[in-house]
């Protein structure tokens, strides 16, 4: 376990359950799914664009705590409760991930706390297994 490091920051939504905001294992950082909640854990109001932005800002805060830039993200998984929100989500998403990492986007029946969007990612730290 010495080569695995938990990342925790007050610059993102706190975990809503028994998990860690992110884990560094080897050269990768695995960011848990981020929902549209502020740094106090309060769900935000607004459009899908607003909520997508909050998810991405949480990811940015977590990666920043680990010293990893957004352009190091190599894989993203986006979960929507309705594919009708795809275009609006995508408009905000592309401003955070202009480098176009690999991505999946799927519609799911329901997300935690009834939110319409959740985003998780994997980034390359470039640090090998040194923590």
UniProtKB/TrEMBL annotation:
- Highest taxon in the source lineage: Eukaryota
Name the InterPro entries on file.
RidA (IPR006056), RidA_CS (IPR019897), RutC-like_sf (IPR035959), YjgF/YER057c/UK114 (IPR006175)
Q: Which GO terms describe its molecular function?
A: deaminase activity
PROSITE patterns in the record, alphabetically? UPF0076
Family classification:
Belongs to the RutC family.
User: What is the species listed in this Swiss-Prot or TrEMBL entry?
Assistant: Decorospora gaudefroyi
Q: Per the record, GO CC terms?
A: cytosol; mitochondrion
Q: What protein does this entry describe?
A: YjgF-like protein
The UniProt entry, under SUPFAM superfamilies, shows: YjgF-like
The record ties this protein, via Pfam families, to: Ribonuc_L-PSP
Among NCBIfam families, the record links this protein to: Rid family detoxifying hydrolase
């Amino acid at each position: 376990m010495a080569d695995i490091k938990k990342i925790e920051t007050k610059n993102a939504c706190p975990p809503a359950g028994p998990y860690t905001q992110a884990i560094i294992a080897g050269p990768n950082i695995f960011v848990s799914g981020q929902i549209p909640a502020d740094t106090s854990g309060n769900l935000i109001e607004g459009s899908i664009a607003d909520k997508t932005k909050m998810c991405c800002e949480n990811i940015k805060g977590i990666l920043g705590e680990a010293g990893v830039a957004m352009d190091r993200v190599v894989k993203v998984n986006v979960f929507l409760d309705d594919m009708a929100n795809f275009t609006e989500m995508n408009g905000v998403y592309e401003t955070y991930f202009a480098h176009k990492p690999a991505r999946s986007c799927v519609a799911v029946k329901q997300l935690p706390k009834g939110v319409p969007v959740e985003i998780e990612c994997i980034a390359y730290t470039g640090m090998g297994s040194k923590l």
